[in-house]
């Protein structure tokens, strides 16, 4: 099987149920199949991935590191599919609101929270539209825009402040020399080659200023977009700087560490709408976003 081939979906479904429920028997009951059918599908998935996902632990099963990774990925994927399916079922005749959002915010913060959004606002239909660069003052093509920025704002916008932005350095525990790096003071860290992005050139200097330190003089690898920067950090390529909200899930899962503090910047998470357009659905979305960011 090529690296780009997706393993059999039935096998993934059987494995996810067994991993989530902690038992092949309970997975068989949940999926209304036999114990043997679940076992065969799990073996099929292990063969497709060329690695064991479970090992025997006494009379039960224990996930291998590969199994834990596959469990997390499969569970997240099924949750997103369930959320999308629920949204489609409820769609009815109500038009979808178009929410513009930078790709990094969309991929790393908004999409993982879609199941919660659907549960909280089941009647709100959203079409998520990635947008890079500055939004037009008219917000033409958008019912609302979710972004991180700072005043002044276009006079044609009604801006709902959701939360202050907080930024800080992060690194993967897989990063070479991670233990030494994590023990550095902010001043010493800023003398290391640091990952950075052209879309947020002010991030490292702002963090340095908050620590009364000189800004970094030599930066390491640069990336065009914040999303790629954070993926590089997760891959262990070095120390990156990121908005706290975009890495909160990675920190909770242990994929990233934040040995240094996060500091507030002059920017805010905001939801912008055309000033001349009232929309109760978008107002409800703004309230939900503020709660999530709190």
From TrEMBL:
GO biological process: DNA-templated transcription
Entry keyword Hydrolase: no
Top-level taxon: Bacteria
Keyword terms: DNA-binding, Transcription, Transcription regulation
Record's keyword annotation contains Magnesium: no
A GO molecular-function annotation: DNA-binding transcription factor activity
Pfam families recorded: HTH_1, LysR_substrate
Domain HTH lysR-type as annotated: residue spans: 7-64
PANTHER family: HTH-TYPE TRANSCRIPTIONAL REGULATOR (PTHR30537), HTH-TYPE TRANSCRIPTIONAL REGULATOR TRPI (PTHR30537:SF74)
Family of the protein in this entry: Belongs to the LysR transcriptional regulatory family.
UniProt protein name: LysR family transcriptional regulator
